[in-house]
Amino acid sequence: MNEYNLLLLVFIPLLFLLGLRIKAFSREGAIAAGVVGSLIIIGGGWLFFVMLFLFLGLSYISTLAGFEKKKSWSLQEGLKGERGARNVLAAGALPAAISLLNFWNFSPNLIFFLFVVALGTILSDTAASEIGSLDENTYMILTLKPGETGINGGVSILGTAVSFVFPIIFSLLGFVIYGLLGSIPLKSLPGLILVSGLLAFAGSLFDSVLGETLENRGYLTKYSVNFGAALFATVVAVLIFVG
Questions:
Q1: Backbone angles phi and psi of 75, in degrees to 5
Q2: Which residues lie closer than 8 Å to 92 by C-beta, 6 or more apart?
Q3: Which helix (H) or strand (E) holds 41?
Q4: What distance in Å separates the CA atoms of residue 114 and residue 121, rounded to the nearest whole number?
Q5: Structural domain of 174
Q6: Around Cβ 238, how many Cβ atoms within 10 Å?
Q7: 104-149, pLDDT tens digit by residue?
Q8: Using CA atoms, how far apart are residues 63 and 45, in angstroms rounded to an integer?
Q9: DSSP class of residue 73?
Q10: Residue 76: its pLDDT value, please?
């Protein structure tokens, strides 16, 4: 393990305090975020940690969007938008596991690609839920019948748009940094950005499908749906990368 990765762990308490300060996490959620962040630092180092920070920042922006309106409809997360431990673990367990693949003989390019796709899927779904809930015209993803705002499996034009734009921005930032480090040829960047963004977007749509078909029937929770969507996008990413 790179000893410099351990030095980055000093940022975890700061992340814990910041998360509580801005009410991004509950106390339990902040602890879970600290654990996930530590694993990502140990496995992936500073670049993976930067990507985690970008993910948190973009997620927080989507949470703040129209918050008072969402609160009046009781569509906000927690009391003030904070995420609990189960939210954090559902979102972070898979990316953390992917970062730890660096300890084995896997392609660094593949690991980073999967990491961006997994986090991008959660970001896409977060943007769709948080910002998309501001669009009162909601339709069920499979039947296209009108549905209540915030219902599992519901989609909207606004939500679909941001669920595409946010992971593209996330992928763009990540792969530009990765490319500037000389890890991949710059000519490969456009394709990687587009593919990873589209996979994350597809994962978010799959999340809605699971929401309509299984979550609404009580077979899955929203946390298992989030994890399942990220896993789906990651598995497809593996098949594309190695294919």
A1: -110, 0
A2: 32, 33, 36, 37, 40
A3: helix 27-44
A4: 11
A5: 3-242
A6: 14
A7: 988 999 999 999 999 999 999 999 999 988 988 999 999 999 988 8
A8: 27
A9: T
A10: 58
> In this structure, what are the phi and psi dihedrals at residue 155, rounded to the nearest 5 degrees?
-130, 160
**Residue 82, both tokens:** 């904070």
> What ranges in 74-214 are assigned the alpha helix state H?
85-99, 108-130, 157-180, 189-210
Q: What is the reported pTM?
A: 0.92
Number of domains present in the structure of the chain = 1
Tokens (6 digits) for 94 = 């898979």
> What are the angstrom distances between the C-alpha of 154 and each of 53, 208, 228?
28, 7, 17
For the record, the structure tokens of 147 come out as 């549905």
The set of residues, in sequence order, having a beta carbon less than 8 Å from that of 70 and lying 6+ positions away, is 76, 130, 133, 134
Residue the block writes with tokens 């970001």: 123
The pLDDT tens digits for 144-178 are: 999 888 889 999 999 999 999 999 999 999 999 99
